[in-house]
Amino acid sequence: MAPVRPLLSPGSRRFVFGLSACAALAIAGARDASAQTPSPLGEWQYSAGVPLQKLYEPTMPTWQVSVGAAMTLQPRYAGSDRYRVMGGPNLDVRYRDLFFLSTGEGLGANVLRGPNWRVSLSVGYDLGRRSADDLGHLNGLENINAAPVMKLSADYVVSKDFPLVLRADVRRSIGGSNGWVGDFSAYMPMPGSNEHFFWFAGPTVSFADSRYMNSWFGVNQGASARSGLPVYSSRAGIKSVGAGVTMVWFVNKHWFVTMDGAIEQLVGRAARSPITQQSTNGVFDMSVNYRF
């Protein structure tokens, strides 16, 4: 008799198990999660809806401030088949349509802007990758140190009647991988959105230079000798494709809940790397916030 194959791969089973752990953490309360890169989340999901605000609220408030608690379930590193749950504070502060400080977008400014577009410069943080994230697989590989990340991004809304948001961004790690990575994405409000509940969905394509790709997915001769993994080199190109959903529910004037989910599929050299154990990764996060 043919052996029975499991419906889910080991990595998929860990993701489903992690969802239940994430729900439990939501009930217990969050402590120390923070938005970080890389993540299967699309870059657009860190600021979903912000470019649309000016179309529907021509008079922007001077200050917009919200604080909350968040948790996230995500892979331990790009291509991992192991997941972890993290909890912590959530913060979003915006001054007019000029400056922002947020857990997701980092610290930045809209250096150019119009009624339906903006160009932003910001600085965030990449927590990198350590061999301790998976000693059984990463032992012997060089750590990718945590480092600040500079980001240039641009958002364009097609129109108020057709609120499709087109976005492009490019990021450079100052330390860590010392590489360039960027995204092209698009998203829009989905049917059923209203003043109390709205949700967005859209795809993302990510690309990177050879330095970034080799830092995350390459194995040089020294690392190969230490880890037992075969020597492997990568090159510049498309790193991954993915899609995400972001939802916001306003409980009342001040309290609101957000949820994000995304799937990322590594492609090409990134997917074939001996470091990659699971080429398809998922992420889920949730936050409870208070808006002043």
Automatic annotation (TrEMBL):
Q: Which UniProt keywords apply?
A: Cell outer membrane, Membrane, Signal
What's the domain of life for this entry? Bacteria
Q: What InterPro entries does the annotation carry?
A: MipA
Q: Where in the cell is it found?
A: Cell outer membrane
Keyword Membrane among UniProt keywords: yes
GO terms for CC? cell outer membrane
Q: Which residues lie in coiled coils?
A: none
Which PANTHER family is this protein grouped with?
MLTA-INTERACTING PROTEIN-RELATED
Protein family: Belongs to the MipA/OmpV family.
User: What is the name attached to this protein's record?
Assistant: MipA/OmpV family protein
The organism encoding this protein is Burkholderia multivorans
Q: Kindly list the organism's lineage.
A: Bacteria, Pseudomonadati, Pseudomonadota, Betaproteobacteria, Burkholderiales
